[in-house]
Design brief:
The structure is a homodimer of 215-residue chains. In chain A, strands 1-14-2-8-9 form a 5-stranded mixed sheet. The longest helix of chain A has 13 residues. By secondary structure, chain A is of the alpha+beta class. Chain A has 2 domains: 147 residues, 60s Ribosomal Protein L30, Chain: A (2-Layer Sandwich), CATH 3.30.1330.100; 54 residues, Alpha-Beta Complex (CofE-like fold), CATH 3.90.1660. The interface between A and B is large, with 68 and 68 residues.
Chain lengths: 215, 215
């Protein structure tokens, strides 16, 4: 597997044709997965706002999961649980502005995937309970199955793997983050050499309420 | 960045010299990170037992975080929160046996790192609250800083990134999992082409109690 940063993308503005800009900057091969930081999508889709952060967080949130001072962990309209419901000042286009999550990152991924002819993951950096640091995860998916279900499969000794379902879309998003970096102005990467099949969306990654021990 | 599976490792038994077996199977370059599934380490270190699973889970756990029927989310002696305190039947060496986590996976990583001259991550598959599927994360680290601290750094627009700390060791473990697979008998991989510096252990990834909103 190779992970290749896509360099040379300009700063994205509302209305930009992200697919065309990425097509200019990248050479895709069959089977590639394109991973794009959601900020690129959000900016192109005009999801940049001015306002008081906490107010915006409460507006974007469907449910507050935890709160301690200014730190709010919230569930977004998409069902993702993350800090500030995805409202973020870093890499915002201007002082005083905040970037929101795309309204429908799966749909954004699907449109990019159709234009570029490769699978697409829209990523964001999420914190995790009990563990320090963020890892990038998939908040939009098109052209691949985000979960690989090994349930009913067998390990090397022939025993059934009864509860193994791997969130490959999240692992791919994290792998891309390792080459994109945070400050280098490289918001996209190609992951090449995986044999992935299937279809699905990032909503498939949301734990259904009835199975959720941490709701 | 390239992620290269290490093929041809034999089934590991108690007392095996894992460093020698990996050295035979892999060609390392300067700056490589070796990612090894903890099962390899656990088996070599004799952490394979017979017994009733729930009893073993309770023995391995320092604290039960959630329980629903047979599903137990527990904190291990190392501070990791995961299903069954890491006690697992899949890829066990014989029917009726269970594999436990290494007693000190950071120490196991350090010994491998010293023998092989590369950074080492010992990985395990963890579930996540609110998200379906597992991702591989680092439970042992040697020869690299598991967290990259961008706090105080600046984004491409010059604004301070105030709360960004990236769990690169977890992202590397996840990237390696994409090529290792679960059933192919490939329990190790090389991650090549990252410029990583620093030192640290997987215990650095455990959220300190006073900052933990989900304890």
């Amino acid at each position: 597997m190779r992970v290749i940063p896509i360099e040379g993308l300009p700063e994205i503005r509302a209305g930009d044709d992200v697919a065309a800009l990425i097509a200019d900057a990248a050479d895709f091969e069959k089977g590639d997965v394109l991973v794009v930081s959601h900020k690129v999508i959000s900016k192109a889709e005009g999801r940049v706002v001015r306002g008081e952060k906490l107010e915006l967080v409460l507006r974007e949130a469907r449910r507050i999961v935890r709160r301690r001072g200014e730190l709010v962990i919230a569930e977004t309209r998409h069902g993702f649980v993350c800090a500030a419901a995805g409202v973020d000042a870093s890499n915002a286009p201007e002082p005083g502005t905040l970037v929101l999550l795309p309204l429908d990152p799966d749909d954004s991924a699907a449109r990019l995937s159709e234009r570029l002819g490769v699978a697409v993951i829209v990523s964001d950096s999420f914190g995790r309970p009990w563990r320090r640091g963020t890892t990038d995860v998939a908040i939009g998916v098109a052209g691949l199955a985000p979960l690989i279900d090994l349930r009913g499969g067998r390990d090397a000794m022939g025993y059934e793997l009864r509860s193994t379902e791997i969130a490959v879309a999240d692992e791919i998003a994290g792998a891309a983050e390792l080459v994109k970096g945070k400050t280098a102005g490289v918001p996209a990467a190609i992951v090449r050499g995986l044999s992935l099949a299937g279809e699905g969306t990032a909503r498939d990654l949301v734990m259904p309420t009835e199975r959720d021990l941490f709701r």
